[in-house]
Amino acid sequence: EVQLVASGGGLVQPGGSLRLSCVASGFTFSTTEMNWARQAPGKELEWVSTISADGRNTWFRSSVEGRFTISRDNAKNMLYLQLNSLKTEDTGIYYCRKGAYRGQGTQVTVSS
Fold first, then answer.
1. CA separation (Å) from 33 to 29, 39, 54?
2. pLDDT digit string (tens) for 3-30?
3. Contact partners, residue 37, CB within 8 Å, separation at least 6
4. How far is Cα 111 from Cα 39, in angstroms, rounded to an integer?
5. Residue 86: which pLDDT band, with cuts at 50, 70 and 90?
6. 74 within 8 A of 25, measured Cβ to Cβ
7. What percent of the chain has pLDDT over 90?
8. How far apart are CA 48 and CA 13, in angstroms?
């Protein structure tokens, strides 16, 4: 059974930082491209970032490019998302995903 559990969210002021983590199990993590998505209140789920299976290639939506960093540790079956220079519009529930499959998310709230 595929399991994806994200953590590390919280309340942060604009300009602040957070590091999200996701532990994966139930599939061969090291050969799987992974991504992060988020859902703001009242809005649809949107893709945020993708990382290739070997971690060498990354992609970001334009609104987070230069502020967010995605990484992974294949030895630990862990996926990460570093969020810097946070803005109020980054608020939402963040999910790590295997394709379109998402597990438990973590809430990020950016507010002064």
1. 8, 20, 8
2. 999 999 999 999 999 999 999 999 999 9
3. 45, 46, 47, 48, 94, 95, 97, 102
4. 16
5. very high
6. no
7. 96
8. 20
If 0-12 CB within 10 Å is exposed, 13-18 middle and 19+ buried, where does residue 97 land? buried
Q: What is the pLDDT of residue 66?
A: 97
- Region label for 66, one of left (φ > 0), alpha (ψ between -120 and 50) or beta (otherwise): left
Distance (Å, whole) CA 67 – CA 85:
6
| Angstrom distance (rounded) from CA 101 to CA 15 | 30
Tokens representing 81?
A: 């998302």
Nearest Cα residue to 21 out of 89, 106, 102: 106
In the structure encoding, which two tokens stand for residue 60, read together? 């970001």
d(CA 4, CA 82): 17
CA distance 78 to 7: 11
What letter represents residue 46's amino acid? E
